[in-house]
């Protein structure tokens, strides 16, 4: 996907599209999100982005070194959307929980195809740096030292983004495929051989319910309880 062989031209003279709209980095990010949500990340190229914004493909390189840099900017946009929705809680733990929830909503619910496409990316851009600083600050407020805060930051990030990728992938499956997967769990009790799987047999009605809904809330609760247990005693 990357097209990093060309560098942006010096300067940033204003350019307009064929429709008269002014080009900018944000215009390209908007176009990339729309393309990903409607057609998938694999279609991104200088040509498709140029067509989406109404400009020559080469115009992209005035704003980004290449297409992969647009993808990183999209990832940073996702983080920024979550941060803009976040409000602090009553304490460090509630604040972390709220931050996880708003980011998850953006990645898994609002823009599932985009979330799946960029959740594994490191942006190195301002919103990501804001999120790192905010999360580390909340963990330090919980009493963790620098090393422990870094460890739990990575753990929280992997949990959140991994869960978002899983649910984004599920949400973007064709309707008939998702229905077939759900039906397989709902029919589990009838498919089990008698007596061979006693624990699965006993839990089957509950699995049929839980496996067709999001586990994010329950997993987040478990993670937050673990953090509270691991946190050093407050003075």
UniProtKB/TrEMBL annotation:
Which residue numbers delimit the DNA-binding region? 45-64
Q: Which GO terms describe its molecular function?
A: DNA binding
- A Gene Ontology BP annotation from the UniProt entry: negative regulation of DNA-templated transcription
Sequence ranges assigned to domain HTH tetR-type in this UniProt record: 22-82
Query: Would you say which domain of life the source belongs to?
Result: Bacteria
Family matches, as InterPro entries: Homeodomain-like_sf (IPR009057), HTH_TetR (IPR001647), Repressor_TetR_C (IPR004111), Tet_transcr_reg_TetR-rel_C_sf (IPR036271)
Q: What is this protein called?
A: TetR/AcrR family transcriptional regulator
Q: Which UniProt keywords apply?
A: DNA-binding, Transcription, Transcription regulation
């Amino acid at each position: 996907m990357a097209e990093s062989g060309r560098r942006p031209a010096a300067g940033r003279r204003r350019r307009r599209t064929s429709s008269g709209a002014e080009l900018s980095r944000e215009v390209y990010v908007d176009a990339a999100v729309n393309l990903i949500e409607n057609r998938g990340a694999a279609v991104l190229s200088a040509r498709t982005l140029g067509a989406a914004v109404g400009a020559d493909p080469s115009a992209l390189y005035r704003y980004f070194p290449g297409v992969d840099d647009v993808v990183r900017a999209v990832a940073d946009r996702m983080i920024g959307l979550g941060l803009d929705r976040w409000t602090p809680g009553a304490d460090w733990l509630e604040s972390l929980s709220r931050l996880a929830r708003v980011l998850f909503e953006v990645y898994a619910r609002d823009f599932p195809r985009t979330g799946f496409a960029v959740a594994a990316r490191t942006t190195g851009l301002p919103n990501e740096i804001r999120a790192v600083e905010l999360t580390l600050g909340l963990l330090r407020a919980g009493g963790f030292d620098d090393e422990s805060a870094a460890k739990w930051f990575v753990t929280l990030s992997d949990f959140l983004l991994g869960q978002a990728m899983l649910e984004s992938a599920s949400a973007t499956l064709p309707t008939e495929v998702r229905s077939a997967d759900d039906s397989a769990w709902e029919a589990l009790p009838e498919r089990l051989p008698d007596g061979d799987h006693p624990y699965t047999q006993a839990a089957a009605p509950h699995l049929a319910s839980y496996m067709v809904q999001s586990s994010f809330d329950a997993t987040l609760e478990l993670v937050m309880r673990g953090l509270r247990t691991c946190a050093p005693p407050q003075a």
